[in-house]
Design goal:
The complex is a heterodimer of chains A (318) and B (260). With 318 residues, chain A is mainly α. Chain A has helices spanning 3-25, 29-55, 62-78, 84-108, 113-131, 133-136, 158-180, 183-193, 195-200, 205-231, 241-254, 259-269, 272-275, 277-297, 301-310, and strands at residues 142-143, 149-150, 153-154, 233-234. Chain A has a domain at 30-240. Chain B has 11 helices and 10 strands. Chain B has helices at residues 43-50, 73-79, 96-103, 112-117, 120-139, 155-168, 185-200, 212-218, 236-241, 243-252, 256-259; strands at residues 3-14, 17-28, 32-36, 58-63, 66-67, 81-83, 173-177, 204-208, 221-226, 229-234. Classes of the chains: A mainly alpha (318), B alpha/beta (260).
Chain lengths: 318, 260
């Protein structure tokens, strides 16, 4: 294994230990709830980072994929009694299909048409969530979603969901890291820098762009399904375009192209509205402002900036 | 010798400019075919048509017995046709070794799910990719720079890196678009030797180049384009005597000294 590989798994292990110790120090369910929301955001941002940080395309529709996962899981288990885990997989498959349908025509075009397409898509999904009130419960939301269960135990408490969510985050980070450090990951980085040279080197650029978009949408969908079963109630406002902006902010603040950066960004941004009441009220403006300032002064993100200070750029892989 | 690459009647028009007109060329394996001509003659356009970057209005391209016109770049690379670029296209943020490893995409397998699960065959393949990349770096004298971001390399090193990347996947033919442009005489000499080495491995080389001394020294066959049309074709010594070629270069007022 390469030295960067050892560093990554050492980091992952350290994170796992930290996460295992945390509930001992924090027993207040309110804080556990915050950590759980962080976990779900980390999951979405990890996928989003593959798209933004590696392939160089921005999506403003990931809240919609997050929401589709939540609503498909919520409605099928709540109204139709489907098995929750199978439904989670089914939702991910549906979201993958939807992402393919959006990705194939828009990613073929030169320039960042994906931003516009995903923005429009998010708006449509938000409208449908509100308008299809027979199915979705409308603006007040859909409730009565059963919790997940594992080995016969319902994941009904903040504590048990904490283990599940963070366990899956570690798995998600590991899978993403494997992808980044493979021939596919190299191909993605290459097509980001020079599509022409990447294609000439044998990288199927169109297919890779669509596939990484689909993978990132699936991360969001799984997080959405988990969200639905955790809260038991879901409302359209949770999945609007402002949530998409928030996710992109998390991705960029930590550092595009750094999986640790995504973790950092989600951990930093998620609790802000809870910590500062003023943030709650103006959070969309504040996130927009943070995004703007970062892109101007610290385009490589906080983690990227720290890594750049620590060693020569490019000297590390992740 | 049978042609590995056969270009037939390629024509393309950019607005009012006939960039290529009924251009045909046959390039064999294990041989250097130079494509020369004044600026704007259509050399790069020809390469871009063959390598799938732009689509010609008409014509046909056969590579290794297969019609390849309209195939995307990555499929051509898989078939064994790679290229370099006139304006450098290294992956500047990736390190030198990774750049060459990308070049091995055409020679390796495994998609998204296999990569995410890090299946055993991928791990073995990754070791082989790395080994081959290091072999290339040694051949091109880049081994000391392996860990450096490619964008920080000196211009000449970037030129060699592109060549290493294009050669890594063991292509049957390479299209080199001005590989020595901007290099000093010593570097040009060195790169020329490398191109001959590539040819000696049995790889076909199509060389677009302005450095006439180099072209005349290493090419087996020279084709001359002017105004999108092929005006002469033959061995270097004959091309140097060709009155039409001389007139073209004289008329253009450039590079005549090098031809003589």
């Amino acid at each position: 294994m390469t030295s960067s590989g050892k560093r990554f798994y050492a980091g992952l292990l350290a994170l796992a230990v930290l996460l295992a110790l945390l509930p001992l120090a924090v027993s207040n369910p309110y804080y556990l709830n915050v950590f759980n929301v962080v976990a779900l955001n980390v999951m979405v941002v990890t996928g989003l980072n593959l798209l933004i940080g590696y392939a160089g395309h921005i999506s403003l529709g990931h809240a919609a994929f997050f929401g589709l996962g939540a609503y498909i899981s919520g409605i099928l288990t709540g109204s139709y009694g489907w098995e929750p885990w199978l439904t989670l997989i089914f939702a991910a498959a549906v979201v993958a299909l939807v992402a393919t349908i959006i990705g194939v025509p828009t990613l073929r075009l030169k320039g960042n048409y994906l931003v516009m397409a995903t923005l429009g898509f998010n708006l449509i999904v938000s409208v449908l969530m509100v308008q299809l009130d027979d199915i979705t419960g409308g603006p007040s939301g859909y409730s009565g979603i059963p919790p997940l269960s594992l080995f016969g135990h319902a994941i009904a408490t903040d504590q048990s969901f904490y283990w599940l969510a963070w366990g899956l985050v570690l798995v998600g980070l590991g899978l993403a890291r494997n992808l980044v450090h493979s021939r596919v990951g190299r191909g993605l980085k290459a097509l980001h820098e020079s599509p022409l040279a990447a294609a000439a080197s044998g990288v199927p650029i169109e297919a890779y762009k669509v596939k990484v978009f689909v993978v990132s949408a699936v991360y969001a969908s799984v997080a959405g399904s988990l969200y639905a079963h955790y809260y038991g109630i879901i409302t359209p406002a949770t999945f609007d375009i402002f949530k998409s902006v928030e996710l992109v902010t998390m991705c960029i603040i930590g550092g595009m192209g750094s999986l640790w950066g995504g973790l950092f960004g989600a951990a930093l941004i998620t609790p802000l509205p809870q910590l500062l009441a003023v943030v709650e009220e103006y959070k969309d403006i504040i996130f927009g402002g943070i995004l703007l300032v970062l892109l101007i002064f610290l385009p490589q993100g906080v983690v990227g900036w720290l890594e750049g200070k620590r060693m020569r750029p490019g000297g590390r892989a992740f | 010798m049978a042609a590995l690459l056969r270009i037939e009647g390629l024509s393309i028009r950019f607005g009012g400019l006939q960039a290529l007109e009924d251009f045909s060329l046959a390039a064999p394996a294990g041989s250097i075919t130079a494509l020369i001509g004044p600026n704007g003659a259509g050399k790069t356009t020809a390469i871009n048509c063959v390598s799938g970057v732009i689509a010609p209005d008409s014509g046909a391209v056969d590579f290794d017995g297969e019609a390849v016109l309209g195939l995307p770049g990555h499929k051509l690379a898989r078939l064994g046709l790679t290229r370099t670029f006139q304006n450098l296209q290294v992956f500047g943020l990736m390190n030198v070794r990774e750049n060459v490893m990308v070049g091995l995409h055409a020679d390796s397998h495994g998609g998204f799910s296999a990569a995410m699960l890090r299946l055993p065959f991928l791990r073995r393949q990754e070791a082989a990719i790395r080994e081959r990349a290091d072999e290339m770096l040694a051949l091109f004298g880049l081994e000391e720079l392996a860990g450096q971001p490619a964008g920080e390399l000196a211009y000449g090193d970037q030129k060699r890196l592109e060549l290493a990347r294009a050669l890594a996947a063991r292509p049957k033919m390479m299209l080199l678009d001005e590989p020595v442009a901007g290099l000093n005489p010593a570097e040009t000499e060195q790169l020329g030797e490398l191109i001959v080495k590539i040819k000696d491995q049995g790889i076909g080389v199509v060389l677009v180049e302005h450095d006439m001394a180099l072209v005349m020294r290493i090419s087996d066959q020279v084709a001359v384009l002017s105004g999108g049309k092929l005006i002469a074709q033959g061995p270097p010594d004959r091309i140097q005597q060709n009155p039409e070629v001389i007139r073209t270069y004289l008329g253009g007022g450039e590079e005549f000294g090098l031809l003589a």
